[in-house]
Amino acid sequence: IAFKFLLIVAFSFNFHSGFSQNPIIKDFFTADPAPIVYNNTVYLYTSHDTASVTSKNYEMKDWLVFSSTDMVNWEYQGAPVSPKTFSWATGDAYAAHCTERDGKFYFYVSTFHKEDENSKGGAAIGVAVSDSPTGPFVDAIGKALVVNEMTKDNKHGWDDIDPAVFIDDDGQAYIYWGNGSLKWAKLRDNMIEMDGPINYLNPENFIEGPWVYKRKDLYYLLYASKGEKAEQIDYAIATSPEGPWEHKGVIMESVPNSFTVHPGVVSYKGKDYFFYHNGVLPTGGSYRRSICIDYMYYNEDGTIQKVIQTEE
Ligand code: FUB
Q1: CA 209 to centroid of ligand 1, rounded, Å
Q2: For residues 155 and 293, which has the higher predicted lDDT (pLDDT)?
Q3: Disulfide check for 119: which of 82, 99, 113, 283 has CB 3.0–4.6 Å away?
Q4: Where is the signal peptide (predicted)?
């Protein structure tokens, strides 16, 4: 009996140490992690890959929510938002980001506009709102917050995807987004209107997937950047959310079995966590991705140590 007890203790210790749980969600293919902490719980908003094993295109029909209080067990909370939430939207559900302000949850999405009097179709950013982190969410403005302009040769541009919102300590909110070049603008306190012009930046090797946050006195901009064969994660530091941003290098190398990678960061119960996706689940790949978490560590001067990817 004593031996059996020892075995059980040894097994449970092994099971709960570190992130040998990666990928953290195994019942769905998930990508583009957007975690927030609210009421001592981590809510994780994700894209949802449903492409077939042989597909060479995204098929992404809705956004999912999971919650956890231990960063190991993730409870599925449903799919409260999809492009159908927005009467003007059609097509895939790309990266999203949810943020809380004054008890309301604003869910910024990257999707596509129907062809109508406001758009010739193309990438667009919308915002849905709810009183709860898990929904139900409704379209907050009844139209897109950002609609992509067609390129000069009348093609759809890709530069209006991947919104990320940051609220500074003084209450000023900012939205960052982009593909190819990074755009940002101030948001009004209502979180659904821009406050001022759209600004353009060209962070080194920037591709997409910005994520902005503050730690101590420094602002951090993380993004998917151009690696040798696939995307990797670079970061830059500033003393203001408006920049100027100082490029600091790569914090995560390309991931196994996925061309894209996408950052998300939270501090929870005294530890810093880096969320990303790869394609390592059985039958996974660039269009069937899976979210993982690893610890992140800062140096004394605020720079970030390279994140070590852990697998099962
Ligand atoms: O998930 C679709 C797209 O792939 C996202 O919008 C990008 O960030 C990349 O992860």
Answers
A1: 7
A2: 293
A3: 113
A4: 1-17
